[in-house]
Amino acid sequence: MRIKVINPNTSWDMTRRIEAAAKMYAARGTEVVAVSPERGPPIITSRYDDAIAVVGLLEEVKKGVRDGFDGFVVAAFIDTGLYEAREAEEAPVVGIAEAAMHMACLLGDKFSIVTISKRMVPVIEGLVRRYGLKEKCASIRVPEGDILAYRGEPGKMRDALARASRMAIEEDMAEVIILGGGAMAGLDVELEEELGVPVIDGVVAAVKLVEAVCGYGKKTSKAYSYRWPDRKEFKGHPEILEKWPDEG
Amino acid sequence: MRIKVINPNTSWDMTRRIEAAAKMYAARGTEVVAVSPERGPPIITSRYDDAIAVVGLLEEVKKGVRDGFDGFVVAAFIDTGLYEAREAEEAPVVGIAEAAMHMACLLGDKFSIVTISKRMVPVIEGLVRRYGLKEKCASIRVPEGDILAYRGEPGKMRDALARASRMAIEEDMAEVIILGGGAMAGLDVELEEELGVPVIDGVVAAVKLVEAVCGYGKKTSKAYSYRWPDRKEFKGHPEILEKWPDEG
Amino acid sequence: MRIKVINPNTSWDMTRRIEAAAKMYAARGTEVVAVSPERGPPIITSRYDDAIAVVGLLEEVKKGVRDGFDGFVVAAFIDTGLYEAREAEEAPVVGIAEAAMHMACLLGDKFSIVTISKRMVPVIEGLVRRYGLKEKCASIRVPEGDILAYRGEPGKMRDALARASRMAIEEDMAEVIILGGGAMAGLDVELEEELGVPVIDGVVAAVKLVEAVCGYGKKTSKAYSYRWPDRKEFKGHPEILEKWPDEG
Amino acid sequence: MRIKVINPNTSWDMTRRIEAAAKMYAARGTEVVAVSPERGPPIITSRYDDAIAVVGLLEEVKKGVRDGFDGFVVAAFIDTGLYEAREAEEAPVVGIAEAAMHMACLLGDKFSIVTISKRMVPVIEGLVRRYGLKEKCASIRVPEGDILAYRGEPGKMRDALARASRMAIEEDMAEVIILGGGAMAGLDVELEEELGVPVIDGVVAAVKLVEAVCGYGKKTSKAYSYRWPDRKEFKGHPEILEKWPDEG
Amino acid sequence: MRIKVINPNTSWDMTRRIEAAAKMYAARGTEVVAVSPERGPPIITSRYDDAIAVVGLLEEVKKGVRDGFDGFVVAAFIDTGLYEAREAEEAPVVGIAEAAMHMACLLGDKFSIVTISKRMVPVIEGLVRRYGLKEKCASIRVPEGDILAYRGEPGKMRDALARASRMAIEEDMAEVIILGGGAMAGLDVELEEELGVPVIDGVVAAVKLVEAVCGYGKKTSKAYSYRWPDRKEFKGHPEILEKWPDEG
Amino acid sequence: MRIKVINPNTSWDMTRRIEAAAKMYAARGTEVVAVSPERGPPIITSRYDDAIAVVGLLEEVKKGVRDGFDGFVVAAFIDTGLYEAREAEEAPVVGIAEAAMHMACLLGDKFSIVTISKRMVPVIEGLVRRYGLKEKCASIRVPEGDILAYRGEPGKMRDALARASRMAIEEDMAEVIILGGGAMAGLDVELEEELGVPVIDGVVAAVKLVEAVCGYGKKTSKAYSYRWPDRKEFKGHPEILEKWPDEG
């Protein structure tokens, strides 16, 4: 099984960490390749950035179709272009926010999501509602301090996340913690030990769920929502977006 | 007051009809300009198309900021890039789906939306939920036949819409009908006469609501959701997307 | 366009302040008249008062029909008799709570309402739910101290409202503040400057929305909810309540 | 125990039938008195009528307080002035729609309400939502034909109700049927035999629930929603509305 | 009328206190018998215990059917086997959590439940949702300290409950308090006096509601949810579970 | 990885078919063992049967803990004792209804569940709500005819399921079909080919999700809901229920 993990952020060092996390947990026989698109923001920190990142992501999905991947992971916690990618492809596509939430539901009654900034709270709330999981979400918490600034200092980041997670567990009665951002990748094990409840990194959850869906031989439904897009010419957009699987 | 109506579809004949409808109802003293972006699909018929249309739409918003418009209307019933545009601007931005739904709430207990294809039903349902108005939506109905094919035959289109609307009124107890697609622009008056309940064209509703918001002197909140995007370089994307109001 | 603003409280000094606010923002060509009914409580501070105020309000609507007004505003934040007025009339009727909430949705992801007393919280919560906007309401907050007692001291009232609003913004993540009571009329501009997010006075919002609806030529749907009431004799009630538009 | 049943409709023949039904099921030791107010519509068939009926109802509650009743039933299926009566009194007040729904929840998974006209559907839907019971309501159905016209022909009315109820059971999977209107009083037993599922007359349900609440010695909470109204002078309204229990 | 109160906990001293409370409020003519099953946990403190207690409870229901009881109360705040008992019987069965919540709705806008341990919070939340009453539940609160350890010290327990209740009233705006556990039985009157809002003991509420339902002559609907179970042989389970009313 | 699949029905032929389906899709390196408990109903067709089946299921979980299984599947579509098993164990436990629903969410916007009898509809609706997935469930449909009677005639069963599924797709806009009953195991592939949308057998979905969760090294959260039960003596119940992992 070959899974393509697409980090819609164009900063490759994050992509490499994502790939490492994905590979660590991939099943025997699963090959994981992680990439960043050729166009898009270095790091997505708003809906605006997210919308601009979609085109690059869709290009990578189209290339992945051509290259015969069995499944795809969208590796930004805002699930950039997830539904659009499902329209453009038949092979399963799973977003890391979506995957983390569904897996969390199997491990505890309610989950909390720890994310990087207050502006992302309504955005992630929108995702929770879109996936129909509002009643399972205890809270969305933002650690104090500037999480992105801690990227070079994993100790500081871990401490800030641990504090926010502990409040989610004690005050909001979260039973599972979801790390809501690529920048936190790789901290799940350490935090889980410290907190005593499951801590989920969406990248790993998504890879495992793509394996599960592919292992069962399922493909995206083409009934209504994810029907193939109509073939048309997009003014001013890269050619690859207008090509379909059967066109080579 | 100057309002820029952006039709994210790149087919100008639809844009011209939208402009005509908007101008017919604009208040004295309101100037309306309708445009299509330079890039994007000729007509949006899926989420995929919608996502690709966002970049072109945002470019038009940025240009509109530079040109000093007082407010913006996003004129595709999928409300392309609405939240992203609000991040990129301070002046009010209103989507035509959003506007039609809010106005319908002032006229009847529940509304139904008549749209062009079954694949759009879950998409529009997503919008209804995003605007928090699920309890006010009696149904989303799709007329039989190929609505888009009727674009040259207004009589056929009107009849198909009237049949679907009547079922919404009788079976789903809709009290207001919303025309869910730019292709239906201009049919509101005729249908209203035939059906005996208010029929709303989102373009007009949006222009009137932008007038209302601007007339009260309100601007988009920059508290959390629509905070200005962080300034950054977008690999492979037009320069205009990286510029902010104060940069000229 | 002629809009009749009916303040169901019988204290005319509040009515005069409401009229001033409405006139300040009315569009060119809009004539605004504000009145208090002949019967009812001096100020509505409970559901009990509200129910008793309805008869007087309906009488004013009936007179307004006779006088040919194009639209009506119900100017108490409990939206006294709003649905009943819609039954009794065809011209648009908008409540100030309703208007404030719908307009807030166009400006930010969530709004908070600041109201005058704890007993009004469940009442307003009922309104929020009735308009189907529960998911857009971050909180309903009551300032500390006796807001009504501050009516002669705008400084004190403003400070109390500012404190409550700030908590709504910081703790509940409100992006728009709604002033939930006629007593707070006229403080919107000042508070908006202080808080940095949109602050909405329902009276202005309602006038602007009536203008929007009338400008589009829409009337209340008579399909089900707001069908004309059956003609009947009301024992012990003023004659005017039993008359219909076509009876003069 | 003395229970005052107030039928806010001013037609005494309905009141007498209501009293008969209530007395048939009242417990040993419960005295039931049914009355109509001095003012109000002969029969409530819209929100407009309902709003006008409130004043008369509140007057009867006030008199009932003076006369020392232990509990009150509001006997119109629109629960006229229920919350306002709770403010005005301490003794339990139960509405017949409310009572029927709560009792139905003890007997089956979901209930359907059969009501007299389509215009009442959104009104009753509003009640269902107000009582927080939306998920327990399978449907609100309106029998074909003019139910009110059948008042002299119980056979015709029963047949029309039976047909609508059967559709609710078979198509909407209702497990309990609620008769949603005073005009249907007394048909519960006959219909229950025919349909094979519990059929509830709200008047009886309300009397039994008032007995239950009074038997446990509970009174309406005065914490927030139903706090005593502030004492004030109501311009142009009967004096009795301004008096409180301790004033005689 | 004869009501069988089944405490699914096998500790008879709790059962005796439950019986005392039930008898104190039973109507004239109501005979109450309280029992504990022959098998099951001494006290239910988790879902695990609850599931194991069901078999014993169902045996007692079956015996009660044979003994001709008119109605049943399930007297653990987790409503052990309530729906299963309804399948196995036709006479009304009411749970104490269910009864407390429905009665609370008649007395105030929102209720809070005070329960014994944090692990019960999601369990009770599940009940609230199952009864469709989520919007009426202000909060579920757990007093500080080990409530079960206070069983011998009613003063300490009352103080802990009062503190938790007061927070529910002041911070969550609860208008009615529900005592969420058999261990708190008998403290309702004292707490109500102290708190000034209605305090409900589910055992009493359930007895009164069974009286109400039986007094109206209603039985459990056998339409879908509570249809009689199919007759079958349960491997390794007591014979009584396989017998039906008509088999003696 | 060793997964124990527990079919709480005591009929081993169904268990053997379940095992076959599970093994067909298990990953390389996954060992699957399917069992039926020693006590319980031959086939669960009601809540009553389900409650009685729990004890046998928990015994099998306890034995599985002793035998060192890595994960568990509860293989009845009513998810018998799922939450109780999670309390009793630390290794992941997944129900087949739960698994089917979560996997369906990754493949289409909405799913429909096809189940065996009308009495199961409210039961499954309860599960959908418990997992917080109500908005993703398009409908629960029951094929015409007696599905259980078709167990020997797979052709008839498949045709009945196909008809019900097609109505779910066309009328309810389901994009994924879930087979809601063990009796339908093994028909997923055939039906998927016929219907053209993904058809999910919960047994396979559950095995794949247990693999996913175990592959990521996650265990059930012991924070609140699934905390270890308190050690106590269960009167009249098998000893094994009172033993804990560390006791051997």
Structural class of the secondary elements of chain A?
alpha/beta
Beta strand % of chain A: 5-15%
Estimate the global geometry of chain A from the Cα principal axes.
Answer: globular
State the end-to-end distance of chain A: 21 Å
- Unreliable stretches of chain A (pLDDT < 50, length at least 5) are none
Strand and helix order of chain A: EHEHEHEHEHEHEHEH
What does this entry look like structurally?
The structure is a homohexamer of 248-residue chains. Chain A is an alpha/beta fold and 248 residues long. Chain A folds into two domains: 2-95 and 204-247, Rossmann fold; 98-202, Rossmann fold, CATH 3.40.50.12500. The first copy, chain A, contains eight helices and eight strands. In chain A, helix 5 links the parallel strand 5 and strand 6 (137-141). In chain A, helix 6 crosses helix 7. The longest helix of chain A has 20 residues, at 47-66. The radius of gyration of chain A is 18 Å and the shape is globular. Chains D and F meet through loops of D and helix 5 of F.
Core attributes:
four-stranded parallel sheet, alpha/beta, homohexamer, 2 domains, 248 residues, Rossmann fold
